[in-house]
Structures are given as C-alpha cells and as structure tokens.
User: Which sequence fits this backbone?
C-alpha cells in the first residue's frame, strides 16, 4: 500500500457520522487515481463484523504500561470493497456493541485506554511490515498520538521518516486526558512533553496539529473558523497555519446514485440528458412510496432532518422551530431521523402526537430510511451550530432535495443562495429560531413557485461533489510530502 488510513470508523463496517463515510470513500478514489490505499479500524462487535469472515494478516503484541498485550490484524474475505480494509482485533477492548459507547448505557469510560492501545498496536504492525506505507494518514483524535509517537518514541524510530497527515473531521472532540495516564505511552524524551500538552493535559488533537507533517480540515471554511473559535486552540491553529489546508469532502457517487440506489424501489431513468419532467416523476414516486408508508400527507412540502440530535447540529431548536411553524398553520411537514439527547427525543415525540400527519419522528439510525428520505423529501434542514463539512447537504443535492442550511463551515462552502447565479439552496446566517423560521418561510415560497423549483432541482442534481476533485487535492498533498 502507499497510504494507510487510520480511523475509528469506516463505512460500511463502522459508522456513526461523516468520519465513517469519508474513510469508506476517499481510499477508494485514491486507489483509482493510483495511490493505493488501505484503511485500518478496530474490530468492533457490530452487526457488520459478525456477518463477515476474516482471514489472519498479522499476529503481534504491543507494549503498554510495561506489559505486552496480544493483537491480530485481520482482513474481511468477502467485503466486496474497492480498497483494502483491515480490522485490528484487541481482545476485550473493542468487541463491544458500540463504537464509542454502549447503545443502552452510554459512553465507554475506558475510551482513552482503548484508542491508545489501538494506535500502539497499529504502529507495532507497521514497524513489522516488510513494505511500509509511504504515508500514514491519521483521522481525528483517535489516531492523533501517532504523529508524535513516530517522531519521539524510540520504540518506533524505524517509522520516523514516514510522513504523517492528520485530518480533522470534528475538532470539538480532542480526546484530552490527564498527565497521570502518561504511563500508557511508551518512553520518550522529557523535553518532548510540550508537544503532547495543551492546558496541562495530554491532548491528542493538539499534539497531532503540532507534530503531523501536514494537517487538513474537511472544508476551507472550517479551517478559518478554527482559527477564531476552537475551544482554546485558536492560537495553535493560527501558529501552524502554514502546514494546514482545507479540503472539502466529496461523496461517493456510486453509493449515492438516484439511478441505481439499491435502497430505492424506483429510480431516475438513465438518459443522455435528464429532463425536469423525469426528475419530477422520480421525486413524486419517491414521495408517494415513503409518505404512504409513514401515513403522512403527500400534497405538502416535506422537510427532513437527518443526523445526531445534539446541540452541535442545532437539534435543540428543532422542537420550538417545528412547533412555531406548524402552530401558525404553515402548509408543510417534518420528518426527523436521528438520535442523541434524550430530552430532545421526548420533546419531538410529544410534538408528533400533537401534529399527527405533519411530523414523523424516528429515533435511531436507519440507512435504508435515510436514502429514502434524501430521495423523497423536498428540503433537508441543517441548522448547525458547528459543521466542519457536512455531507447530508451533498447527498440531498444528488437526489434533488433542496438544502436549508446555516451559513457556517462546509455548509457555507458548498451551498450557494438559490436567488444567486448557480444557486443551490437556502442559507441563514445567525443561529436562532427566528432566522431558521424565516428560512422555512423562504422554502415555502420557493416550493409554491413551481417553475423555479423544478429549475432549481434540475440544476442541483447536476452539481458534481464527487470525490474525484477532493482526492486529487489529497494526492497533490501526498506528492508534496514524499
């Protein structure tokens, strides 16, 4: 392999958000472009893992706190992927029913130990490879200690010359832990302590920014925002800006394809040139299938929210926003798919009883339902407080669903106000119910202007946000480093 991607998630094996989608798509497009890529993730006790067979690739032991612990590297024999996917089997560490926490009991309390073990085992594996990767591409804080360890831990001296790239998918999670757990790391020179430290704690994200050869964020706008608002890391991002660059994520057009999507009952016809009438028939067919299944009103515009029901995604304003909108008699409906804060769950469930036929709430995640929603909805709502890139708006464009987004991070980088030339969606600036409500009013007006709405749908379905362009930017970066 030329690039080894080190990640906590990779679709379809393990996914909780955009990190999984990126790790499952970027290596495929890099490989197609000549940079053969592989991904390594922990071997979780998830349904995907249980239904696949694995072949043994490597047996080893990593050194942690003056002891050796066994691990194996395995590869699924029947995954059908366009890149190599490896899973790291760490007994008792990851063979659990969740990625970061138990679905019923919450966050795992030993995540620090789990992901340190993961990184140490990976470096031991790479150290023992006959043909080593040319790039170690680390994703988020779960792999954030690797750039430091290959530079300053004598145990991994043989890897010192391999360039490291660190991609920040979400800087809100830094993985910081107390210096009292210093014993979990292998020996390194005392004077290197400062390259791990931030605010008197070991901070994997900050350390990766300091030590990686190059740092990327998943959109140019998010990189600029981190220099202004990053929970105390602002100075660091400004100081290291010369080695940082923002590369907007892409999407896999083979997975997200209205012509072939296996989750859909009907498809957009394959023609040399798709007409507005073809798109309208496709959208109406999708809406009829979904709305009839959910028992909702087919004759109104439907606005969908898909994602984590947490403050970061702006989900805490959804209950009041939906209540205000429906209480004033707006002729539209809402569908919510996601999970997160329990109080948001309860408020939304309460509203679904208050507005039967106008609000459908599905707590949890369902990949098939998500694809149906992108295809059947008229609008997708993303009122995010923070959005490093956002992929939902890109999936929505692919299926002719108009994004309603807050103008922040990757949302601002990827969506143009619909009234402008090459417009693709509805944007609102401030994070408030008032601003979001005005955006919904704008959506209602747009929906009623049938000719403009059809024209916009045809335009957005032709916008190319595939991984080819983004992958080419990563290849430029890799070539610069090697």
Assistant:
């Amino acid at each position: 392999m030329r690039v080894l991607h080190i990640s906590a998630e990779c679709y379809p094996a393990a996914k909780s958000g955009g990190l999984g989608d990126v790790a499952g798509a970027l290596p495929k497009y890099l490989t197609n472009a000549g940079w053969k890529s592989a991904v390594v993730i922990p071997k979780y006790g998830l349904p995907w893992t249980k239904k696949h067979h694995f072949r043994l690739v490597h047996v080893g032991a990593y050194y942690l706190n003056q002891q050796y612990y066994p691990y194996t590297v395995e590869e699924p024999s029947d995954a059908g992927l366009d890149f190599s996917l490896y899973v790291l089997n760490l007994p008792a560490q990851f063979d659990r029913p969740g990625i970061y926490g138990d679905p019923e009991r919450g966050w795992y309390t030993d995540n620090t130990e789990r992901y340190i073990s993961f990184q140490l085992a990976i470096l031991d594996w790479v150290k023992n490879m006959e043909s080593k990767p040319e790039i170690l591409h680390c994703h988020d804080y779960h792999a954030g200690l690797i750039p430091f360890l290959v530079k300053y831990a004598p145990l991994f001296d043989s890897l010192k010359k391999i360039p490291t790239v660190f991609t920040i998918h979400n800087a809100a999670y830094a993985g910081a832990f107390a210096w009292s757990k210093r014993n979990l790391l292998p020996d390194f020179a005392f004077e290197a302590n400062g390259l791990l430290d931030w605010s008197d704690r070991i901070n994997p994200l900050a350390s990766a920014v300091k030590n990686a050869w190059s740092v990327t964020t998943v959109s140019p706008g998010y990189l600029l925002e981190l220099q202004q608002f990053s929970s105390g890391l602002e100075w660091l991002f400004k100081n290291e800006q010369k080695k940082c660059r923002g590369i907007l994520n892409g999407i896999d057009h083979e997975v997200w394809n209205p012509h072939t999507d296996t989750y859909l009952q009907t498809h957009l016809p394959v023609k040399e040139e798709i007409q507005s009438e073809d798109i309208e028939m496709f959208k109406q067919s999708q809406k009829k299938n979904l709305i009839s299944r959910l028992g909702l009103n087919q004759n109104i515009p439907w606005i969908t929210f898909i994602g984590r029901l947490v403050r970061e995604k702006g989900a805490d304003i959804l209950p009041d926003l939906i209540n205000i909108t429906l209480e004033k008699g707006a002729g539209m409906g809402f569908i919510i798919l996601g999970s997160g804060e329990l109080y948001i769950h309860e408020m939304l469930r309460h509203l679904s009883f208050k507005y039967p036929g106008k609000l459908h709430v599905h707590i949890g995640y369902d990949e098939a339902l998500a694809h149906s929603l992108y295809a059947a909805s008229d609008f997708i709502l993303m009122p995010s407080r923070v959005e490093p890139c956002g992929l939902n708006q890109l999936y929505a464009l692919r299926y002719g669903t108009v994004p309603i987004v807050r103008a922040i991070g990757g949302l601002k980088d990827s969506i143009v106000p619909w009234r402008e030339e090459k417009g693709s969606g509805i944007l609102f600036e401030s994070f408030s119910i008032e601003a979001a409500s005005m955006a919904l009013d704008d959506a209602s007006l747009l929906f009623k202007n049938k000719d403009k709405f059809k024209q916009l749908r045809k335009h957005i379905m032709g916008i190319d946000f595939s991984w080819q362009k983004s992958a080419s930017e990563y290849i430029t970066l890799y070539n610069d480093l090697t």
Q: What stands out?
A: The mean pLDDT is 95.
